[in-house]
Amino acid sequence: PGVEVRFNDSVELQVQGRLVAVGTAEQPILFTSVSGQPGAWYGISVSGTSSAPLGGTVFEHVVIEHGGRSIYGNLNLTHATVEVRHSIVRNSAATGIRGLTQGVAHISDSTVSSNAGAAIEFSDGSVAPQLSNLTITGNGTDAIVFGSGTLASDRTWRAVGVPYIFNNVTVAAGATLTVEPGVEARFRDSSELQVQ
Fold this sequence. Notes:
mainly beta; nine-stranded parallel sheet
């Protein structure tokens, strides 16, 4: 708890195992840039493979800021599942939290703010992030953004206070999609929600 880590320009923290960063409310952990400018560093990337996906990474009472160099987010996930709790992800030059292929973050009691791009984006629309008690404000797009994907198992879209933005979504045969009251689902042009 209380550790402050500053990164030089054009670098990233790449995790191919596990990262456990657990601070406290009084002593949060800070990941930031030396220069203090959004986009100065790439951010944190948790990267597994299709044959060896990663789990076990935890961010609790953590601040991640000033990443987002190029198209990266403050937190980037590929073939990895991470937990983000009681944390702040802010001031990225691009996305706040960015999930690529099979990259998913379960996020609770956290703030995603002042990122130039989307607050949270999962390009793999098949993933099932668990999202609760979020504060999302001041981002380029205050929304949870999904790419195209197939929902192969039961899924619930929960009201989180901001819209979901979708590309093509397919609810596979035998799966049930439940939409909670208050959910706002926005679909991009020429996309559809297909229920099989």
